[in-house]
Description:
Elements: E1 4-6, E2 12-14, E3 17-18, H1 19-26, E4 30-34, H2 35-51, H3 54-57, E5 60-65, H4 72-80, E6 84-87, H5 90-98, E7 106-108, H6 115-124, E8 128-131, H7 134-147, E9 151-158, E10 162-164, E11 167-169, E12 180-181, H8 186-195, E13 200-206, E14 210-211, H9 217-237, E15 243-245, H10 263-281, E16 291-294, H11 298-301, E17 305-320, E18 323-330, H12 339-343, E19 350-351, E20 360-366, E21 375-383, E22 391-395, E23 416-420, E24 423-428, H13 433-439
Parallel strand pairs: 4-23, 5-6, 5-16, 6-7, 7-8, 8-9, 9-12, 9-13, 10-14, 13-15, 15-16, 18-20
Antiparallel strand pairs: 1-2, 2-3, 4-17, 10-11, 17-18, 17-22, 19-22, 20-21, 23-24
Helix pairs in contact: 2-10, 6-7, 8-9, 9-10
The structure holds ligand LLP.
Amino acid sequence: PNSVCRDDQGRLQVAGLDVVTIAREFGTAAYVVDEDDFRARARAFRDDFAGAFDTVCGGADVYYAGKAFLCTAVAKWVAEEGLSLDVCSGGELAVARRAGFPAERIGFHGNNKSLDEIRAALDYGVGRIVLDSFVEIDRVAEIAADLGVVAPVMIRVTVGVEAHTHEFIATGHEDQKFGFSLSGGQALEAAKAVLARDSLDLRGLHSHIGSQIFDTGGFEMSARRLVGLHAQIANELGHHSPEIDLGGGFGMAYTSQHTPLSPALLGEQLADIVGREFKAIGDGDLAEVPRVSIEPGRAIVGPSTFTLYEVGTVKQVALGDNHSRAYVSVDGGMSDNVRPALYEADYSCTLANRDSEAAPMLARVVGKHCESGDIVVQDEWLPADTAPGDLIAVPGTGAYCRALSSQYNHTPRPPVLAVRDGKARVIVRRETIDDLLALDVGVS
Ligand code: LLP
């Protein structure tokens, strides 16, 4: 985050609080969130990104994707900063509810929402449910009719564009579980089915093309296809949807290799794309651009957080040719960040509790779990005097780390600490072995 720097004793500090104090008070491993950084990123999407759409369609809505990381404090920050919230399970919806998140600003996703989840969403009055299958169209319509409400819905469209970081592939990616396919005409059929139901209100079309994307080319392709379908629905079914959603997936910098677009630039490019695509389809009503929304998760929460670990052991392993690698073991690992093991994700790290004049050594930071793939940072230069008791900070762990965490090897999960104005507070407490044992009811 922006507010991370070193104090005069070489200790890393965040929002005016040093990590040695944090570790002493709360223990390690811990996720440390810079609250102001999170809020500033959320605001940048709300103001700079959304502002770019003012002249195109009267503005844009930003749904924070809770799947990247959600707890009640974060839901409150999102609400206070004026964003909307994307949830994709009954659990995430329950968090939003407990935080008192305004129902009309919630979007509900999922390719297999249970009856209870649909009922809970309608009961809370969410602003939109994103429909993913014909089975679900019937289900939501019936439950809404039962409850005597009209459900605001969007149709998730499989646009046939899949984006991976630097590339996007525009053909043949319809073979996946999400959405109604465009090429087979299913998406149009879905619109027809929704429009035929009195208990459903078709708000618009939705697409999501991937995650950790840096190039707007994939969004351009997907917007073109969505706009084409929007026009077809208007022309053939006489329905003008008021919203269009381009999904999430905006990349963040994990290492110096990545340069993400700022929310302002991203807004400018997407507004330009959407404006152009609507101009291309016709005049009058048809060219009227619906309200645009997006669903960034990683780009908001990812950079706001670092994980603080304590070094337990350091071991030199010979690599031949007089080279060696230091294996630096920390008190966490794949249970609190599975992304290196799951996606070969790259992270960096730094010695956090002091400066060092020692020469750099090639290090691999590893966790405490019983797998050799339990790697936190694959390759990093750390000072050669890095020793047990030192603190290591791994930046950029706000997204899909705590969210994907496990209790592998019966390891209690670390707390999430929010730091602001020189003070830290626990927003998700540390799990204990007693928490884990409480679930185990086999032997009393
Ligand atoms: N909207 C929808 C419908 C999504 O499926 C996702 C992410 C998002 C928004 C938010 O995407 P973001 O802006 O955070 O990239 N576990 C993987 C990422 C999975 C993303 C799943 N869907 C990882 O750790 O890289």
